[in-house]
Amino acid sequence: MTDMAEIFNTLLELFPYAMMGGITAGIICGFLGVFVVSQRVIFLGAALTQAAIAGVAFSFLHLINLESMLASLFGIPSVENSFLHHFEHTFFSLLFAVIAVFVFSQSFKQKYLTTDSLLGFIFVIAIAARIIFIQKSPIAEVSEIEAILKGDILFIGAGEFYTLLTILIIVVSIFTLFSKQLRFVTFDTETAAAHGLNNKFWLLFFYLTVGIGISLTTRFVGDVFSFAFLIIPASIAIMVARSVISVFIISVLIGGIIPPLAIFIAFELDVSSGPTAVIVAFIVFLTAYLAKKIRMR
Amino acid sequence: MSKRIIKFISVSTGYGHTVIHSDINITIEKNDFIGIVGPNGAGKTTFLKTLLGGLKPLAGKIEKENLVFGYVPQRDTVQPILPYTVHDVVMMGRYPQLGLFKLPSLDDKKRVAECLERVGILNLEPSIYNSLSGGQRQRTLIARALVSKPDVLILDEPTNGMDTPSHHALLTLIEDLHKTYQLTVLLVSHLLSDVANLVKRLILFEKGSLQFGTIEELLSEEKLGQTYSANIKVKKVDGEYLISSKYND
Questions:
Q1: Per-residue confidence of chain B (249 residues) as pLDDT tens digits?
Q2: Number of domains, chain B
Q3: Is B99 inside a domain boundary?
Q4: Which of B184, B199, B170 is CA-nearest to residue B68?
Q5: Would you list the DSSP string of A160-198?
Q6: B51 in a structural domain
Q7: Do B54 and A194 lie within an 8 Å CB cutoff?
Q8: Which of A34, A110, A187, A247 to mutate to probe the B interface, most B CBs <10 Å?
Q9: Chain A neighbours among B 120-179 (CB < 8 Å)?
Q10: In this predicted complex, what is the ipTM?
Q11: A244 vs B54: CB contact, 8 Å cut-off?
């Protein structure tokens, strides 16, 4: 027990922002996951994470040098500025996710393609684009770029942590402030429209919020972690909770508790923290599922 | 003479460039009770969507002066994953009237309870919507439509998939709401016998055309046979219409 506490303390000292950033990323995904799972658009999470990564890969082409443009605009020396250094990757990751949401939103307007097909298109095109962008990147080491693209909880620094915290505040504020519209359009789009709510606008607005949240989280913690934490905590919460508010609370708690635990286990077993977090989350899901099955007998 | 509240003036309905019905001229009056019937694919849903503003008329115009619509969708289209309570679901009907940021007040909560009592399921207010029977869910959706204090209540196939007692209880409730609140009701149903014994007027949809008139005007074997492309028999027994296929006689 003392050993465990010691390891935790060491990890906290070595990776304070990784611990706090992991918790924050887990909470963001757990919160947004309730929306994604309840809307039956789980594949949207996969498509958006890939679109975000394609955006980061695009930034390595350096076709548009936003870094220099901003530096000259504000008179900042770009080489020493860490915000500017990361801005381009983050900007394009966000831009690609937003474009993906707009493409996805076309599924509300036409009847020739199903939502699933459209998400499938976004998913494969994003992966193909990423491969091409990396091959054409002036940076020589493909593996190095892949590592940056994939993100890692342990590499979360102060800047990344504060960005994640800002995303969390924005996402929770938007979903809380417009919870009435969110509830009605997601529960019954047709009736919400008949009762005077602009359902297309509100759905697009919520999907854009989800897109922004997912793209930035993916940028810092990787696609596997983001996608898994969009699905697993929300699925557990929906399985065990008895009210909508408790679904959100349970999902957020699971999303927040597992990452530091996973960092600890990953440290002990000398494996990557992101995939470990996914496996731990799945074990929690399996336990909850079996407990529910046994209780229902 | 009742007040005219909705007027279709040479309206064409459809999607994109596809016209489904053209030159619709219909007037709906306050306290009207209209049945909307016709085979699948005849354009009933397109007509409703156009009336509710979800689709723009391809031609003509619809005059509807600041009406509040209460809409009850087909029950099967509402299958939430989240554990919403009956109270939550009915309260949603108030949301459009609350504005962007305002939270439901005590009056709104009272109104929800009143509407649940009116449809006979006040005791189910804290229950989870997903755990209800088909009839109870339908009553919840009707309460949600009523909570907005509608001028016009539109019900889309409300008795679909219900057992006989629930089916009749629901039709009685709809008739009661129409009489008590003097509500204008538009009832969509594929069961002609349901509609025939309940409503005052009919909109009979066929592919490419529609007829509008009183029950007596439209419930002829000839007209129904033409609409459904089948041999249909219409009988009146003790003041009630019995409609069946001639082969089932």
A1: 578 889 999 999 988 788 888 889 999 998 899 999 888 778 888 899 899 888 889 999 999 878 899 999 988 778 788 999 999 999 999 998 888 888 899 999 999 999 999 999 999 999 999 999 888 999 999 999 999 999 999 999 888 877 888 888 888 999 998 998 889 999 998 778 778 888 889 998 887 788 888 888 877 777 777 777 777 777 777 777 777 776 555
A2: 2
A3: yes
A4: B184
A5: HHHHHHHHHHHHHHHHHHTHHHHHHHHH-HHHHHHTT--
A6: yes
A7: yes
A8: A187
A9: 128, 141, 144-145, 148, 154
A10: 0.81
A11: no
